[in-house]
Design goal:
Largest sheet: 5 strands, mixed
CATH superfamily of the largest domain: ATPase, nucleotide binding domain
Oligomer: single chain
CATH architecture of the largest domain: 2-Layer Sandwich
Bound molecules: 5'-O-[(R)-(carboxyoxy)(hydroxy)phosphoryl]adenosine, zinc ion
CATH topology of the largest domain: Nucleotidyltransferase, domain 5
Amino acid sequence: MHILGIESSCDETAAAVVRDGREVLSNVIASQVDLHARYGGVVPELASRHHIEAVAPVILQALDDAGVSLEKIDGIAVTRGPGLIGSLLVGLAAAKALAFARRIPFAGVNHLEGHIASVFLTDTPPEFPFIALVVSGGHTTIFLVEGFHRFRVLGQTRDDAAGEAFDKAAKILDIGYPGGVVIDRLAKQGNTAAIAFPRAMREGLDFSFSGLKTALLMHVKRRAGAIAPEEMCDLAASYQEAIVDVLVEKTFRAAEQIAVARIVVCGGVAANSRLRERFRRKAELAGVRFTVPPPVLCTDNAAMIAVVGGHCLAEGHRDCLDLNAVSRWPVACP
Ligand code: KG4
Ligand code: ZN
């Protein structure tokens, strides 16, 4: 069973071919980073226009890389939401057109469910149930995952997402975009204990990152003059550590509370090298089975969408050509 996945929820136009829900035959990602960098964030109107230009070549490239023709594709999986509505509509329209022309089924997929399903593309996917921390530019949520489409929210951010905290910090420090990648790189040369940034809401399983961002802003405003490169690395390392600390602490707390010794971390921020290292170390100490997809499957991609869509289609689910995109779409209720 060959599934063509299409993803265009934010600033990446992506297409992938996945065989039998496990094997990535191709994974093409056209990033719009350069387009949005000068604005320090994604400009929705520019994003959707760029998706229109990129979507057909990206799909053709994915088929070419996979060595399969469109005739070999059994079904199409496409991100339906949540995301930027104008961006989502481009991928969805492309999926519908292909499905209609080829007379094959298609399924609209929840982007967050896609991030969680990226773990099934690793060599050793966990069994259900597992705890999944989804950390991206738009979400920071701890789920109990009991099966495909079976999620329970255990904790979530009350304000900014972790990825947003990285991106906004990079904007405050004027060190480039996207912030997570730049801070990850600078932090490698910095001291994690140089600046005592706050860890908000130590109790419970919810997160809050807006106070941390304000603390950074205050710190920068208090000091006069330009920030030297070494100090910038210390700032990045200390700030990153404050985010990673709470993500690690609360995810392991959730696992302990629910008595599930399997943890998955996914979403763009899961590409962070320090986060991966801290989770790995703690899992070893705690005797918890920890799985994180390779970085290329953590950030937005269409292979993860193909996994979920393939599963929906195998279950007999069929979406109709009047399916609409949705900007908000919770996968589960708290
Ligand atoms: O999952 P994703 O690609 O898109 C959304 O669904 O939001 O996540 C994007 C987020 C951005 O905030 C970006 O700064 C962050 O993931 N990110 C990182 C790293 N790579 C991407 N954050 C920290 N360290 C990284 N290496
Ligand atoms: Zn994402």
